[in-house]
Amino acid sequence: MEKTLAATVQQADHARQNEKRVAYATIIGTTIEWYDYFIYAAIAGMVFNQIFFQPAGAGMATLLAFASVGISFLFRPLGAFLAGHFGDKLGRRAMLVATLVLMGGSTALIGLLPTYANIGVLAPVMLILLRILQGISAGGEWGGAVLMAVEHAPTGKRGRFGAFPQLGVPLGLLLSSAMLALMTGVVSPGEAFMEWGWRVPFLFSIALLFIGHWIRSSVDESPVFEEIKERKSASKTPIAQLFKHHAATVLLAALVFSGTTAVGYMTTGGFIQNYTTDPAGLLRMERTPVLLVVTFSALVWLTFTWLSGCWSDKFGRRNMYIVGFLVQIIGVAALFWLVNMGSIWTVLLALVLLSVGVGLTYGVQSVFASELFPASIRFSGVSISYALGSIFGGAFSPMIAAYLIGKTGSTVAVTLYLGAMTVLALLAALTLRDRSNIPLGPDHEAEQNRSPLWWKS
């Protein structure tokens, strides 16, 4: 009796320790991934337009810099297909480690690149190739992190656990913005930042890579995948099965994601940073205060991402999306009205309002997607839906915004564009049923295979 009790206590203690490791692995890993990604996006509009694309002329160089941010999104589906295929066949944990190494290595190499002045056109070509590798990594990373978190979660706490990998995005934005504020304001202000200071945040990724690899390698494999492996029920062709039976769900989930990414990439894609600090623009604000404001807005995004995941366990995933998108519309409407006042305080207010709505929609994203797809093809479904949503929404939203302002001379068109993306995402969310707490294991594939589309029984 005593041995049985001791064994039970030991198992419970192991489970609690593993839950902590899962939380750390998903939060820290995704934070590092998105730090790498956002460092590029932020520096592209401030630096790369001048040192890699400058022969194209001021306006076109900025568009090309933002296009280099967006081009990586076109390769996210490739990363999602590869990670989804092998994640459904070989396991979630291996993909988490592989994508982290690919992202960290690519980021560090960007920090070592020679510029256009050194080697000519080869410099932007090499930059874009490394950006493509970042896109492949990002396309595969999210699905693995999400499933490790959600599939380890106790019943009734999936929303909370699903928020762990989501926290990596605002944390990555916070870390990257704080690093840039430090470099532009203290370590390498002015011309020193343009000459060498911009390289340091990329090279810092090497240290983060070792930390993330150590943590992710220590976590247990997803219990759902362990069951699949024991039963030898892994799908031989997960992607083919996904598109044969769940193509409409993939498309609608991608549209839901696109509403959050299009708006979120106004800061994570570097557009607001460039718009407010561009020496040739209307506002011409100082870089460091703007970066500090973005850092603070990332804290707001972080807070509401966590609250959204936790609240979804109580109020449902779909309801959180509805509330989040309605709040996001308010933030979109106020964004440029406040930013164009030209005060750092109105920029702060604008980004805080925007971050509340984005956080509310982003926090529920991972658990919502995980509950849409059957266990045997879940990695593929989650990863590909997210990758496509990133293309529909975030991929070129900074470039589209820059183009619309250049074409119209006003930010009104950008507000309409972001508003339309938010409304489209809200409508897509309304077409999908709430499947909160549906069993996730392979024993319940019949129930998981029932369509989540509201017009199907």
UniProtKB/TrEMBL annotation:
Keywords: Cell membrane, Membrane, Transmembrane, Transmembrane helix, Transport
Record flagged with keyword Transmembrane helix: yes
Keyword Transmembrane: yes
Membrane topology reported for the UniProt record: Multi-pass membrane protein
SUPFAM superfamilies: MFS general substrate transporter (SSF103473)
Residues of the Major facilitator superfamily (MFS) profile domain: 22-437
Bilayer-crossing regions: 59-82, 94-116, 171-190, 196-215, 247-268, 288-307, 319-338, 344-364, 384-406, 412-432
Pfam families xrefs: MFS_1 (PF07690)
Protein localization: Cell membrane
Gene3D superfamilies in the record: MFS general substrate transporter like domains
Annotated protein name in UniProt: MHS family MFS transporter
The organism's taxonomic lineage, starting at the top: Bacteria, Pseudomonadati, Pseudomonadota, Betaproteobacteria, Neisseriales
